[in-house]
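Instructor's aside before we start: the two examples that follow are unrelated to each other. I chose them only because their records fit on one page, so don't look for a connection. First example below.
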Amino acid sequence: MMPITEVMRGSKTGLCYGSTVDQKTCYECDETKAADQFTKNRRLCKACLSARNRDDYAAGVNAARSYEGVYARSIQRLYGMTMDDYDRMLRAQAYRCKVCRRPETKLRKNGEPYRLCVDHDHVTKRPRGLLCHRCNVIVWALEENHTLVPAIFAYVEQFRESLAA
């Protein structure tokens, strides 16, 4: 006969056969696992919690954890913008990059295009406009080191001259 030992189910401790106090039983998959397979004060194991969060994010069930909710919190925290401010800028730019006038082409894992990036002044943190990923990287590089422009032109021209030779 197996000894009766203590086991944790979620946040409750009870008596059970064949388990020890360093194990917990997940409420989702009903498997008994080591306590380190659970996050602090959670009833779900890490694997089930991760799967649930992933499903909620993809389905947009939880607004705070959806792509839109995460993005809204990020632009609020970083630039002091609301989604209404972002949408107003987007409409004013005809849903296109302010530099190249093209829509975003970089795609997320689900095949949808990313939102246009909020370009901002790195000193004041104030938004300047919405840019595609490619233009945002270029603006960042040039803002950080504007002497790159002549070096980039020289690099491209040197390559083109080598092809002509």
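Example two begins here.
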Amino acid sequence: MKLSIVISTHNKAQYLMLVLLSYCAQTVSKDSFEVVICDDNSTDNTEEVVKDFCARGLFPIKYVHQVKSKRGRAAGLNTALRRASGDIVICSDDDWLFPPNCIAQHLRMHRHLKNTAVIGRALKMPYINIRQINERKILEGKFIFCNKSKIYTLKSDMGTVHKAIFTKRGRLKKGIITAEYSFTPNTSVPMPAIKKVGLFDEHFIKWGNEDVELGFRLYHMAHLDFIFKPENIIYHLDHKVNITEDKVMNWLKNVNYQRYKTLAYYYSHKYPIRKEILRAMREVLR
């Protein structure tokens, strides 16, 4: 069994370098996983960073550089997914560090579970200057660079949503209609299931909610079971984000589009609805 980690990146070479270092420290053999990176028109030294790791030959890397204008995270991840060859896939990101046993834990779960999405925890570290990070510690799996008491859990992880939809044993509670909000950069999914539902929806603009909507389809259309494994943790390298009006508006459009798709799915399963009406609804919401 082989696992593919797919990443869409744009101008975050410094973070991506640390992420790739964390993959070097994995306890599984290099033939057990691959990393597929879609470079979404970066103008920094992302290509040089990736080629340097390719030259080291520490694990298989596939690299695609999209030279056209930025198409967004959904399109970038789809580009990477189409080149991935793993049986299992994690749609991660360019600023998430994997502890040494992370991939091994995902593979172990999938060897015993069929048609299941395995969800790990996603913890966020406070913003720090990445230039101060010791690369050797990452290779040793020691990348808690700050006071542990300051590390906090993402809202999409063990917050009210996870407590509401999962039992203490990590299974979905009976009667829960969706596992969409459980989807994180630490979720491993059988590749056939992602292909069955048609990959990410590229109508999502730039970033935001494309993963939530995919989780919805995996649950309702691929009929995946979802299991939560809190002991399997990845860490987010927090960074400063320039919040602009365009970014906020794009995110709001994505939220509305996700709501439209969710409502349209439920509606179409109760009442037949013509495709042209759905197209008209989409245009109104976008």
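The first strand starts at residue 3 and ends at 9.
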